[in-house]
């Protein structure tokens, strides 16, 4: 029977009495329509709303239809057949007792059919507009398949390149991740969640998951509360404020309490401090995995911990379905906890407009890869690629370039250029570097040789052909890296080297003596220091998605100018990890003069630590490339850094400006970055923190004054009493093109 809103039955009247009580405890539960509905629900129906099941692919099994009719399913994930979804929704609306629609979830992480650069690459654009546009396209395509909800953005701070999931993150910085996360939420959800083409976002994985020990997925995380709040929770708070409608609790054990049973995270911080009104879904089986963690003895205990902590919906496993009723009967949990969870879920279903119209109309179905979507994906890919080296300005190649040898196992891999998490990505749409260069230059000017058939291959049989191609060419472009499956969930690496015999391939090809451009397609920062010595230019493209080839061709040929900047520090080798720009100073910070190199230590050297500083004997202290770094075909000069407000009071704005000049020969875009350091804190402060950035386009010879305004509240941090405070004192401020910016000035908060 379809439920009718506002129907004043006795049940509703009784219900309202109950609702008033609820409102006293939870003033945010104030939507009468939802409260009415909850009053009509049986306990089984409430528990049903809290259950998310996995999809079935196509034909709807009879038992599932019955479960929908019985109100036992609140959500389905991984079902993307729009006809099937429409039918499920029809059954839910028309045949279930209360007519509550189902919410359809899917991992739409960096595109749906049209694939955008991996999120780490998107973060390298430092362009929230581009990122938002990408999320919008992903939302529209997914929505046209019947999907209502994506499990994105993933905004875990990732300081460890070994961790496979760094690919789906926005890198190491809380501010950049916040800006990108908010852009993604805005793109997915749009201005109106109920509008066609809008889907619900899900901030994940709450929280601390990126700090997995050793960069090994699912591993323990130990993060002191101050660090948690100052670094790991920032991006989550930002997307919460931007209206992200759902959160996902993580797999990780955080300081001894698994995230999916963590009252501190889910109840104290998310609900009580931030007043989050959306709902929390567990990660896949993360409730029952609390047994394996050794946190609870069995599923019943797991369900109890999770519901008490504040997990509203259980993904994939069924501990709620099996035990919530028993837990209530035994008085171990209060039914009010369920009402709260169901309220949150129903509220989102209303906000999504699913009660009115959960269907995708025939003419709106399966709208994929429209020309404007592909164009948006190309622009994102262009801006995501980071130029790390360009000796003798070998790039851009001109149209008169002559013959190009295109070499490498990633040069023509339609699937592998898409990256991780592309369940629905259509590799037939991909345009590879080979295809794009052939189109631009003509087939006879591109000499293609894979060298290795895939990145992990150690079979050097193809080397000779690659070297021959290099000898016949005027310039060599090598596309190396990692296949998609080498990053992403559960795909971590202990080494950051190019896999297989790729290093040897570069060395062999270099012997041909031709200029080499190295293009790296990967899901993480790779330790390419040694091989970069053999090449003249390096363009780091991450996994660039569907339009990776055309984007690369435009950059190589100078149709576009690189403007990406690294969203994460690139280590020289995995041995330097964790390495991140916003570290603490230590009592013995390093500088070049105090670095003892392993090769310079005489035999029988007497042991002393005096004069020594915090570094590795064999790797020094600096990274391969710093956070925020990225070159352009043009050059930019920063000058006249000025702080207009050298002395401010608390709550005032700090105003700083710099003049940026394009001193090269190309029109270009620069990401102007502002960093600060709080010199003395009641807890020690990072040596630099990104606080703002602007993308600026300048013509050759053009210069522009760039002004930043930061409120002193943006300089706040959590002290040891866990109070968020801005402490008066002296601050250093830098503005420049990377975290190594050297133009520095100071200001004082009085
Ligand atoms: C991942 C989540 C993902 C979920 C659903 C889990 O394994 O950790 O990020 O959203 O699966 O596919």
Q: Can you characterise this structure?
A:
This protein is an alpha/beta fold and 750 residues long. Helices cover 29% and strands 17% of the residues. The chain is built from 21 helices and 26 strands. The strands form 7 sheets. A 6-stranded mixed beta sheet has the order 11-16-15-14-12-13, sandwiched between helices. Strands 4-3-2-1-10 form a 5-stranded parallel beta sheet. The radius of gyration is 27 Å and the shape is globular. The N and C termini lie far apart (67 Å). The N terminus is likely disordered. Beta-D-glucopyranose binds next to loops.
What's the layout of helices and strands?
Layout: H1 10-25, H2 32-40, H3 43-49, E1 51-54, H4 62-69, E2 75-77, H5 82-95, E3 103-106, H6 119-123, H7 128-143, E4 149-150, H8 174-189, E5 202-206, H9 225-232, H10 234-241, E6 246-249, E7 253-254, E8 257-258, H11 263-273, E9 279-282, H12 289-293, H13 299-309, E10 314-315, H14 319-329, H15 335-351, H16 371-384, E11 386-390, E12 404-407, H17 433-441, E13 446-449, H18 463-472, E14 475-481, H19 502-510, E15 516-521, H20 529-532, E16 537-540, H21 548-556, E17 636-643, E18 647-648, E19 653-662, E20 668-678, E21 689-698, E22 703-711, E23 717-718, E24 724-725, E25 729-736, E26 744-749
Parallel strand pairs: 1-2, 1-10, 2-3, 3-4, 5-6, 6-9, 12-13, 12-14, 14-15, 15-16, 18-26
Antiparallel strand pairs: 7-8, 11-16, 17-19, 19-22, 20-21, 20-25, 23-24, 25-26
The protein binds beta-D-glucopyranose.
């Amino acid at each position: 029977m379809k439920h009718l809103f506002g129907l004043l039955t006795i049940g509703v009247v009784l219900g309202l009495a109950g609702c008033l009580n609820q409102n006293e405890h939870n003033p945010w539960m104030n939507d009468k329509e939802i409260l009415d509905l909850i009053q009509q629900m049986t306990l089984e129906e409430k528990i049903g709303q809290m259950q998310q099941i996995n999809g079935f692919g196509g034909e709807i099994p009879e038992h599932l239809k019955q479960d929908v009719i019985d109100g036992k399913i609140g959500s389905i994930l991984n079902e993307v057949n729009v006809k099937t979804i429409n039918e499920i929704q029809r059954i839910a609306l028309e045949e279930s007792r209360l007519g509550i629609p189902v919410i359809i979830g899917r991992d739409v992480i960096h595109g749906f059919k049209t694939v955008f650069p991996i999120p780490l690459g998107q973060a390298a654009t430092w362009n929230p507009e581009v990122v938002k546009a990408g999320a919008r396209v992903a939302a529209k395509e997914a929505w046209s398949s019947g999907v209502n909800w994506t499990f994105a953005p993933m905004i875990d701070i990732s300081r460890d390149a070994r961790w496979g999931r760094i690919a789906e993150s926005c890198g190491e910085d809380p501010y950049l991740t916040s800006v990108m996360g908010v852009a993604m939420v805005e793109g997915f959800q749009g201005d109106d969640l109920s509008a066609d083409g809008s889907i619900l976002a899900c901030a994940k994985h709450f929280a601390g998951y990126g700090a997995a020990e050793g960069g090994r997925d699912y591993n323990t995380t130990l993060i002191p509360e101050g660090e948690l709040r100052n670094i790991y929770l920032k991006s989550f708070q930002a997307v919460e404020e931007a209206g992200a409608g759902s959160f996902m609790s993580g797999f990780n054990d955080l300081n001894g309490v698994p995230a999916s049973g963590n009252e501190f995270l889910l109840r104290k911080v998310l609900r009580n401090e931030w007043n989050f009104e959306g709902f929390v879904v567990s990660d896949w089986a993360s409730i029952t995995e609390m047994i394996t963690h050794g946190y609870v003895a069995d599923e019943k205990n797991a369900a109890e911990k999770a519901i008490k902590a504040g997990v509203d919906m259980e993904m994939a496993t069924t501990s709620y379905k099996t035990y919530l009723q028993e837990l209530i009967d035994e008085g171990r949990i209060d039914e009010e906890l369920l009402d709260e969870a169901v309220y949150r879920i129903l509220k989102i279903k209303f906000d999504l407009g699913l009660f009115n119209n959960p269907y995708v109309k025939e003419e709106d179905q399966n709208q994929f890869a429209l020309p404007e979507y592909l164009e948006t994906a190309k622009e994102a890919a262009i801006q995501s690629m980071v130029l790390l080296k360009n000796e003798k300005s070998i790039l851009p190649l001109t149209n008169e370039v002559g013959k190009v040898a295109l070499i490498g196992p990633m040069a023509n891999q339609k699937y592998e250029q898409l990256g991780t998490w592309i369940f629905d990505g259509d590799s037939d749409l991909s345009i590879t570097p080979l295809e794009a260069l052939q189109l631009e230059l003509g087939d006879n000017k591109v000499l293609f040789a894979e060298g290795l058939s895939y990145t992990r291959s150690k079979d050097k049989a193809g080397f000779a052909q690659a070297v021959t191609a290099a000898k016949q060419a005027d310039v060599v472009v090598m596309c190396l890296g990692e296949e998609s499956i080498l990053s992403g969930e559960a795909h971590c690496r202990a080494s950051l080297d190019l896999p297989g015999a790729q290093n040897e391939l570069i060395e062999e090809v270099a012997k041909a003596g031709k200029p080499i451009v190295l293009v790296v397609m990967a899901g993480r920062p790779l330790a390419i220091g040694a091989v970069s010595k053999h090449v003249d230019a390096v363009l780091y493209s991450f996994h660039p998605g569907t339009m990776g080839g055309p984007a690369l061709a435009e950059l190589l040929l100078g149709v576009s100018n690189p403007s990406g900047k690294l969203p994460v520090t690139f280590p020289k080798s995995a041995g330097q990890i964790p390495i991140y720009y916003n570290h603490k100073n230590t009592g013995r910070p390093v500088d070049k003069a105090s670095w003892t190199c392993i090769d310079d230590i005489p035999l029988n050297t007497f042991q002393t630590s005096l004069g020594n500083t915090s570094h590795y004997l064999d790797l020094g202290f600096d990274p391969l490339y710093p956070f925020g770094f990225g070159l352009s075909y043009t050059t930019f000069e920063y000058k006249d850094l000025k702080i207009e407000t050298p002395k401010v009071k608390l709550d005032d704005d700090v105003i700083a400006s710099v003049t940026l000049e394009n001193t090269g020969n190309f029109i270009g875009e620069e990401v102007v970055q502002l960093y600060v350091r709080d010199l003395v804190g009641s807890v020690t402060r990072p040596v630099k923190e990104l606080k703002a950035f602007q993308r600026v386009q300048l013509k050759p010879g053009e210069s522009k004054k760039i002004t930043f305004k930061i409120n002193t509240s943006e300089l706040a941090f959590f002290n040891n009493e866990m109070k968020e405070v801005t402490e008066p004192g002296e601050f250093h401020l830098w503005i420049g093109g990377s975290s190594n910016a050297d133009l520095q000035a100071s200001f004082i908060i009085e």
